[in-house]
Structures are given as C-alpha cells and as structure tokens.
Design brief:
Blueprint: E1 34-35, E2 41-43, E3 46-47, H1 48-55, E4 59-63, H2 64-81, E5 86-91, H3 98-106, E6 110-113, H4 116-124, E7 132-134, H5 141-150, E8 153-156, H6 159-168, E9 174-179, E10 184-186, E11 191-193, H7 208-216, E12 221-227, H8 238-256, E13 263-265, H9 283-300, E14 307-310, H10 314-317, E15 321-333, E16 337-342, H11 351-355, E17 361-363, E18 373-378, E19 387-394, E20 402-406, E21 426-431, E22 434-439
Parallel strand pairs: 4-21, 5-6, 5-14, 6-7, 7-8, 8-9, 9-12, 12-13, 13-14, 16-18
Antiparallel strand pairs: 1-2, 2-3, 4-15, 10-11, 15-16, 15-20, 17-20, 18-19, 21-22
Helix pairs in contact: 2-9, 8-9
Bound molecules: ligand LLP.
Length: 461
Amino acid sequence: MTSTTAAAIAGPRFYEADRDIASPNRNLTPITTALDGEGRLQVGGCALGELARRYGTPLYVIDEDTLRATARAYREALAHHYPGPALALYASKANSSLAITALVASEGLGLDAVSAGELLTAIQGGMPPERIVFHGNNKSLEELRLAVELGVTVVADNWHDLELLAALAPLQPVRLMLRFTPGIECHTHEYIRTGHLDSKFGFDPDQLEAVLRHLLNCPWARLTGLHAHIGSQIFELQPHRDLAGVMAEALKLARSLGHPVRDLNVGGGLGIRYVSSDDPPSIEAWVRTVAEAVAAACSERGLELPRLLCEPGRSLVATAGVTLYTVGSRKEIPGIRTYLSVDGGMSDNPRPITYQSHYTAVLADRPEAEASDTVTVAGKHCESGDVLLKDVALPPATSGDVLAVFATGAYNASMSSNYNRIPKPAAVLVRDGMAELVQRREQPEELLRYDVLPERLRPVA
Ligand code: LLP
C-alpha cells in the first residue's frame, strides 16, 4: 500500500485537480465534487455539511454518478479492447448493499459474492443469477446449497468444495469455475514470481491437472471457467500481463482434457488514489493491458478466445464514497501532537488501524480555508491506535465542524464492526441535488437483538 501522509495534499481546489471523469479511480474525490455558492463542499449536488446535519454522523455518502462512471469505464474499455465477449463482475465484498447492487446491475455488470449474506443481497438487489459467481475458501454446505438453488456459478476453491457439491448431488449440473493459485505475488511496487504461493485461496497449480481429470467424472459439474486473483490495491500492470500467460496455459490444459471452458476470470486488484501522491493506472489502461495480454496469450497458443471476466471491487466503488464525521473534543499536547476526535473511527473505517492506510480529508463547510493546523484525527474507540488520519493539515477545527474523508466507498462499510457497541452509520446515495437513505442508521437498542440472558441471570425486580 503506497502513501504519504495526507498533509502532503495539494492546496485549495485539490479536488478539482487532475479530474479524470473517464477513470474516477485516479481522482481523490467523487467526480461531482464542487463548491456551492457559499464555498461549501458538495457532492452529487448536495452540501456535505447539510447532509451531516440532516442524517447525523458518521455518515457514508455514495455518489451515484461516480459509481456509474466507473462501471461504464469498465464496460466500455472491455468492449473496446477485448475482441471477444467480456463482463466485469463487481466484487461485492468491497461494499455490499441492495442499492449498490441495483446500480451495478443496471449498468450491466455481474457480481462476485462470498457468503450467503452477499448472495442474498445480490439477488434481492436485482442481480440476475447468471451474472453472479460465488467464491470462498471455506464455503459451508448451506451456502453451497443456496448457491446451487439460486443457479449462480460456483467457484470451486478446493477439494472440500467439490466433496460438498457432490454430496448435494444436484439434479441440474452446476456451473463451476476452478480457482487456482497463479504463482504471481504482488506488492505495491514490486512483484515476485514463485512456483508456489503461500495462499489459502485456490487449488495449488500442481493440482490443477488432477482436479480437471477428476471433474471429467463428475456428472453434476459443468466446468465453465478458470479463475485467479493476484491481489488488491495494485498499481503495476506487469503482474496482470503475466497472469494472462499463466491462465491461458491453464485454459489450454483444461480444453485439451475435454472441458469446454468458456470463461477466463482474471480477478480484480486495480488500485485507487487515496492521497495525492498515489498514481494508479486508469481503468482504461488496466483493462487494455489485461484484454490485450489475454487475447495475445490465447492466440499464441491457438486457443479460441474465452469470454473475459474480471472482478473489480475497490476501483469500482472506493472513490464514489465519502464519510462525514462531526468533530468533538480536541486535545493539544504541546510540542507533541494535537488530537481532534470525531464521532466514528475504527468501527466504520478499520483500514487505517488494520493496514496503516492513509486518507485525505477536508472540512466540509470550509474546504478552501487555509490548512494552518496539523492535527491527528482520532476516533472515539477505546484504543490508542484508533486514528483515522495522522498529522494532517486542516484549517483550525472546533467542535461541531463536519469532516469529510474521501475514497471510503470500498472496504469501509463492508468491514465495519460494532466495537464498543457503537451502532453502524447510515448511508445515503446522492445525485443531482437529491439524497436518498440507502442504509438506515443502526440504533443502540438494536445491538442487543442477539443477546440472550439466561433466566437464572436475570436481575430480580
Ligand atoms: N476477486 C477476488 C477473488 C478477491 O479476493 C478480491 C478481493 C477481489 C476480486 C476484488 O479486489 P479489488 O478489485 O477490490 O482489489 N480489505 C482489503 C482488501 C481485501 C481484498 C480482498 N479480495 C482492503 O481494505 O484493502
């Protein structure tokens, strides 16, 4: 994960700099970010400070135009650069909700789900089952049964999946993909290639032939595709080129054994800009690289072109998301640090404490005021590491100010928790000056829903 501290962000109007409408993953902020007549920040035509006051904070704001623009960027780049059929599947682990599912479905994308919860969200959000793939390195029998009943494609990750599916003995053959470890490991600025990868996901490449032979004797299985995924928040293109070769080799093997494999699923992984120094490739460049590499690797081997699938998560939704917080207490430790505490933290965005990731923030009502203060934005959790932004430049902020943190649309809501029994935030979808609630704010009483107090422990009245 690359980063510098967000203190390094450019000055005023950074959100209008290097705006790349065709590839929002290269922007720091949603494509609709602008100043209103009073110099306040707005997204989707809605003043962020107003949204915070209307819906409360922390609040996840999702910009519909940005989300649709990224979806279109994938769709159009695939159509333009790949000579065969192609489909982008939204990796819903990045942010799973009915509204986001409905939006990506309406843009013609498919979806990748990894649990019964994500599957049900996808189906109820209107994603057609034939556009859904079901992943997971430890699927339960119940989850597999649901996937088979729904008629989605199951990505077999290991022998255990195959045993459970055989035990279900479905009447209709199951559409199956095989996931294997491609032996390509990615880091942000380098990648190494190894024969074996230390990964819990997918069949070891050495086992691939045995699995393919095994499946020839499974009447319940219809092998439709091969899958591999090399990592996330990746800025380099070369590992994706190399992956194409590895996958084409696997495709050749599968077809030579008699499997009429149609789909090649290259996973996700394209990075986004969290701070101004991040410089990810555009969606267009990523798709072009992958599409050309897959087409070339197949033609070199004389293989009929497969359908190309990819599974972007972060690069589809991250930039569309902004989180709003209200500033509360301030603690100045002379010569050491100033802490500004907000009303959320590691429960709504666990990425800084988990991955030491960096973010960019502004004051929603004074985005252009001189950032003359250096502060550390802390959350409200009982944990010293609960810091959202470390030593960032902000205008002097006081209690009641609304802080907007950018690029929080991926792996924030979906990784949120109730640590310290703090309710999960609400989410609103904004577009053309309209805001719609798409996730209701959890209430403290609701957190007790699953507690059971045995009779003998009940307080005596
Ligand atoms: N496909 C598969 C099989 C995956 O495992 C993932 C992500 C994706 C697609 C989507 O990758 P993306 O396009 O989002 O990079 N929680 C971490 C990220 C974990 C990614 C897990 N797999 C974070 O917050 O950075």
